[in-house]
Write a structure and sequence with these properties.
Length: 171
């Protein structure tokens, strides 16, 4: 998609129109601070795009290619990211409260300081990811792979499923 097309879509969304980015490409674009809340983006290609500080709550990003995307301090609360490719994504400080990341590929992703409370990460691939200082109260990590992940300072509680300090020590 061209920058002009993206601007038109953002204006339509701002005006209350229903917009759809299913299967579109915004790869390598700088879209810092945009509001795309509740937009359907199934299969979106946003490889290496910069959506830092953006409002993406409730978005549908199932199966999206988000490899190396920058989502620092973005609001992805209640987003559907099932099966998304988030390899080496920068999610530092992102709000993923209630997000569904079941089966997502988060290899090498940086989730330092992210909010993962109530998130669903069943079967997620978290190999070599960074979760330092992330908050995962009541999250569900059942079947997630933490091999070589840095989980130092990960906040979790007794209702966090599929994670315990003893069982998941980054090996």
């Amino acid at each position: 998609m061209s920058e002009f097309e993206i601007k038109a879509i953002l204006e339509a969304h701002k005006a209350g129109e229903e917009v759809n980015l299913d299967g579109k490409s915004i790869a390598w674009l700088l879209l810092k601070g945009v509001d795309l809340s509740n937009v359907s983006m199934i299969g979106l290609d946003a490889e290496e795009a910069d959506l830092s500080e953006s409002k993406l709550s409730g978005v549908d990003l199932r199966g999206a290619n988000l490899k190396e995307i920058i989502l620092t301090d973005a609001d992805l609360s209640n987003a559907d990211l099932r099966g998304a490719n988030l390899v080496a994504a920068d999610l530092r400080g992102a709000n993923l409260r209630g997000a569904n990341l079941a089966g997502a590929n988060l290899k090498g992703a940086n989730l330092a300081g992210a909010v993962l409370s109530e998130a669903k990460l069943m079967g997620a691939d978290l190999k070599r990811s960074v979760l330092c200082g992330a908050c995962a109260y009541t999250a569900n990590f059942s079947g997630a792979d933490f091999q070589w992940a840095n989980v130092e300072g990960l906040y979790f509680d007794s209702s966090t499923k599929g994670y315990s300090k003893e069982a998941n020590n980054g090996k």
